[in-house]
From TrEMBL:
Record domain Hemerythrin-like: where: 154-295
CDD domains per record: Hr-like
Family statement: Belongs to the F420H(2)-dependent quinone reductase family.
Name the record gives this protein: Nitroreductase/quinone reductase family protein
UniProt-listed Gene3D superfamilies: Electron Transport, Fmn-binding Protein, Chain A, nmb1532 protein domain like
InterPro entries, per the entry: F420H2_quin_Rdtase (IPR004378), Hemerythrin-like (IPR012312), Split_barrel_FMN-bd (IPR012349)
Pfam families: F420H2_quin_red (PF04075), Hemerythrin (PF01814)
Reactions performed catalytically: oxidized coenzyme F420-(gamma-L-Glu)(n) + a quinol + H(+) = reduced coenzyme F420-(gamma-L-Glu)(n) + a quinone
Length: 305
């Protein structure tokens, strides 16, 4: 579809609470905003979607073309996306389904929208089915101490850290499931793929990219402001900034570790994963210990100038 056609659908969607006429009339439609894999700029596209319980599914059909659509390549590089569905707007992690799960979900999609079977028949590539997992419920559900209402910068810090901890748990749980599937394999030949490789990768990337963004904002804005009004925290802030450089190395190590999960020794893999996770969680805990009292009186969102 042309860029001008897409923009007209986007405008109609936003003007009518998610309702669109023409070829999309009567079907579920969402707007997906990805971040350009190369440009780093936001890109919004209208996509047909199918519901799977509380999740939304989209298919990288590209109308049966031989190449994956740009939005799919973008989310592989940057898994965090923005979804507009009806009048709802929420952040999500885009996780392509694999193996048996992909086949089952694609059959579900075709049952609702048979045209996707024609797109699959027109190309030799396997059309990706992407599950859009809302990130926002984990702000509350992942940590009982997390405030439901964010009124201060201290609350916001805890909210972000809660989301980061939840992503670490996702990575650990999925890695354990992957290794358990390998261990359960019996018989000749290679063990069947457990269908978790992309899922682990997407959650790990989401964690690492979110943590990097979080640290960049702290170094550029939060830490200078805190140091100006609380000079007694200067030693702690210096330590946190030094830790940011260490954490960046741990992030790279985590990505490298997960890249080798298919052949890694399970015991050593889980030991290394837990060691890295412990270091990351210790950093988040120290940051909260030092900064929350100083940020408790800073309103969030910031007041308008």
């Amino acid at each position: 579809m042309s860029q001008s056609f897409n923009q007209s659908v986007i405008d109609e969607f936003r003007a009518n609470g998610g309702k669109v006429g023409g070829p999309f009339e009567g079907s579920d439609l969402l707007l997906l905003t990805t971040t350009g894999a190369t440009s780093g700029k936001p890109h919004t596209v209208p996509l047909g979607c199918v519901r799977d319980g509380g999740l939304l599914l989209v298919v990288g059909s590209n109308l049966g073309a031989p190449d994956h659509p740009d939005w799919y390549r973008n989310l592989l590089a940057r898994p965090q996306v923005r979804v507009e569905f009806g009048t709802e707007v929420f952040d999500a992690i885009a996780v392509p389904a694999e193996g048996e799960r992909r086949d089952r979900l694609f059959a579900q999609v075709v049952n609702v929208a048979p045209g996707y079977a024609d797109y699959q028949a027109a190309t030799s590539r396997t059309l990706p089915v992407v599950v859009l997992e809302s990130a926002e419920p984990e702000y509350v559900a992942a940590d009982g101490e997390n405030p439901v209402t964010v009124t201060s910068l201290a609350d916001k810090l805890v909210q972000v850290h809660t989301w980061l901890r939840a992503q670490l748990r996702h990575v650990r749980d999925e890695a354990e499931a992957h290794l358990a599937a390998r261990a359960a394999h019996r018989g000749p030949g290679a063990p069947p793929a457990p269908g978790l490789g992309l899922q682990i990768r997407q959650h790990c990337l989401a964690f690492c990219q979110s943590l990097e963004f979080h640290h960049t904002g702290e170094d550029a804005h939060v830490f200078p402001a805190v140091a100006r009004y609380h000079p007694e925290l200067r030693p702690a802030i210096d330590r946190l900034q030094e830790e940011h450089r260490t954490i960046a190395r741990i992030q790279n190590g985590l990505l490298a570790l997960l890249a080798d999960i298919g052949t890694a020794d399970p015991k050593r893999f889980l030991t290394d994963l837990e060691r890295m996770s412990d270091e990351l969680r210790a950093h988040l805990a120290y940051e909260e210990e030092q900064l929350i009292p100083a940020l408790a009186d800073v309103p969030w969102p910031p007041p308008a100038p």
